[in-house]
């Protein structure tokens, strides 16, 4: 009786632990695996919403110098992804000339590409240089990118052409 009670008492936590471990492994693999858009489209999209660059307005980086979320009222499909904008003017600007506002490397992390691999970026960490928008995974990555020599930055473009 005592053995049976002890066995059932300790079995439940192990089941929870095994279930939690499986969940952690699944989430880790999802985080490491490129999003569907990286393999099927040209721009990184948020897996849960399907929105390009996580639903941030790409024009706002240029016009307001900040990462601003778009809204569903101002949405546009372009190059296999849905883009959202914070206002009608930004939507119109992107529609006129999307290549000007779309982030480089499909919205993937620029430093990771310079090192030869794809990594989703955090749209809140960005930099505009020579009229081009670059996104990064972290502030540390951004600082490292800015410290690279031009040739090393150019390698990101070479790798992007190979990996996309």
**Radius of gyration, in angstroms, nearest whole number:** 21 Å
Query: What is the residue-mean pLDDT, rounded to a whole number?
Result: 81
- Structural class call reads alpha+beta
Helix content: 40-55%
Shape: globular
* Overall number of strands: 4
Q: Bin the strand percentage.
A: 15-25%
SSE string: HHHEEHHHEEHH
Low-confidence parts, pLDDT < 50 over ≥5 residues? Answer: 2-40
Contiguous helical run count: 8
Largest sheet: 2 strands, antiparallel
Number of domains: 2
Beginning-to-end CA distance, first to last residue: 62 Å
The neighbouring-strand order within the major sheet is 1-2
What's this, in brief?
The protein has 164 residues and is α+β, with helices and mostly antiparallel strands. The chain has helices spanning 2-32, 36-40, 60-63, 88-96, 98-101, 110-114, 139-147, 150-163, and strands spanning 71-78, 81-85, 122-129, 132-136.
Q: Which features characterize this protein?
A:
two-stranded antiparallel ribbon, two-stranded antiparallel sheet, 8 helices, 164 residues, disordered N terminus, alpha+beta
Overview of the molecule:
- It is a single chain.
- The chain has 164 residues and is of the alpha+beta class.
- It has 2 domains: 36-100, no CATH class; 103-164, no CATH class.
- 49% of the residues lie in helices and 16% in strands.
- It is built from 8 helices and 4 strands; from the N terminus they run αααββαααββαα.
- It has helices spanning 2-32, 36-40, 60-63, 88-96, 98-101, 110-114, 139-147, 150-163, and strands at 71-78, 81-85, 122-129, 132-136.
- The strands form 2 sheets. The chain has a two-stranded antiparallel sheet with strand order 1-2. A two-stranded antiparallel sheet has the order 3-4.
- The chain is globular, with a radius of gyration of 21 Å.
- It starts with a helix and ends with a helix.
